[in-house]
Fold this protein.
Amino acid sequence: MATGKINVSVDNIFPLIKKFLYSDHEIFLRELISNATDATLKMKHLTTIGEAKVDYGNPLIEVKIDKEGKKLHIIDQGLGMTEEEVKKYINEVAFSGAEEFLNKYEDSAKDSGIIGHFGLGFYSAFMVANKVEIITKSYKDEPAVHWSCDGSPEFVMEEAQKDTRGTEIILHIADDSTEFLEDGKIKSLLSKYNKFMPIPIKFGMKTETLPKPEGAKKEDPAPTVEVDNIINNPNPAWTKQPADLKSEDYKSFYRELYPMQFEEPLFHIHLNVDYPFNLTGILYFPKLSNDLNQQKDRIQLYQNQVFVTDNVEGIVPEFLTMLRGVIDSPDIPLNVSRSYLQADGAVKKISSYITRKVADKLNSLFKNNREEFEAKWNDIKIVIEYGMLSEDKFFEKADKFALYPTVDDSYFTFEELQEKIKATQTDKDGKTVILYASDKEAQHSYIETAKAKGYEVLLLDSPIIGHLIQKLESSKENISFARVDADHIDKLIQKEETQISKLSDEEKETLKTELEKVIGEKSSYTVQLEAMDSDASPFTITEPEFMRRMKEMQQTGGGGGMFGMGAMPEMYNLIVNTNNELVSEILNTKTAKKKERLINQSLDLAKLSKGLLKGKDLTEFIKRSYEMVK
Ligand code: ADP
Ligand code: MG
């Protein structure tokens, strides 16, 4: 028997380990299973290259709870360790790793920015155990070793009785960590961290039903057997070659990742690159709603099939965090904060690779099956629009396949749209005006008016569309967007020829004065007289585009307190069609009272059409209208 003192400057490192990683105690299991996996894969390698003349067999890793003994066992059939190796790897190397970790992260360990805690390795066992034993037998012809340590730097090492190759780690679970003796807890940890690890992991037994033997009677129960309960899938889809997978395989892997998700993904992207960095993975486009916040954090990050985190912020661009799936890369540094991560060269490359792959996939879907792409557009547009807004590289690519649907469900690319409306919607200054609606129901009458004039009206209803419109306006020449209710159409798309007004200048002057008198001088409505078709609406309310955009930006927080202003003032135009019969009638009405009534009723109708008539005004309007129809 040998005893010794682990060479370390800190007297008792274990309480420190415990303290620093208080929030992440559970990762000890991931670390120990990673070690067991490494040891098994090393064994496989040694037998493959003929270095070890032993039978590799079908090794598995077993996790066993001994509730009474308050012990947790992790047993592998890997390459094991000789006495020399335990001294070297456990007493020296592993410990220096732990110490280095503590020195490095003394200040920042509490910073939630640290992802995972790789590198702490074996000694993370002391976060949950007050004593740890190792019983190990090397594949080399040397006696087995029993090492134990009770949480002080002192350890005991002696010869052990173990005939089979491999390592057993025994954790004597501390009183404050007894949750790790619960089946349910261990099961959930195994499925969180080890679901896709490359070596089968056994946790308990399970009952399997066998087919009934021939000639069995109907009422005979089917025979059952007890078999190892393997909790992981050692060969997940992303580790395979795309050519070996069918579309059904991708779908079933999606169900494996998200068992509670009943909706199928719209399509997938298989990531597979080994130079200049190593990355594999599968990303899925789920059906996305317009809610930006509720759908993040579904991509899982792995390193060599070991789960690391489901917060990939900083590793994939923000707009892609709405996707789902798996990214596996050994090249992503993990012991660093998020802000460092974003500055890391390798991570930047990975991020732009993923962006490019996503853009390429979308582009090929668009090119190869436009119909299907259009059908899916509304479920995926939020990601694409968000990406176009936030990543210039993506904008460049997406500009070719991003779609602009009309209120009648035609889908144009930007180029197609421009081509289509160039002749009809370009004003005399050469600017093409793109009309859009954000709500088909609320803006119905405006949409109809625009369509009657032969204009295309887009339906753009994403929450971020306002920002994207601004980006398009600033990056493309001679175009501008206007919502259908932004200004009077004829005013927006000014042509050389204008309609002749039925009213004389003098009559117009009188009409304007009288309207303003009734509406009130300080009201938020500016009266504008326009000569239009006689059957066009007599009164229309519009809201200047810039005014509405400012208001919207304030609402979405973009311009909160912009220019130090409070709430934006209400500002509307009241467009009066001087060629409409009702307008002439108002002008020619002799009694002042009747005239006032006509104006008020007309204004209310215009407000109603724009959805501005509410509360008391609406109640009174309805009352008045009943009086009139009586
Ligand atoms: P790392 O895994 O990063 O090398 P650890 O602290 O987890 O650091 O482990 C230290 C070393 O101890 C390993 O590199 C390995 O040589 C050895 N080791 C740990 N667990 C096992 C095991 N189950 N079988 C064989 N060797 C092991
Ligand atoms: Mg390790």
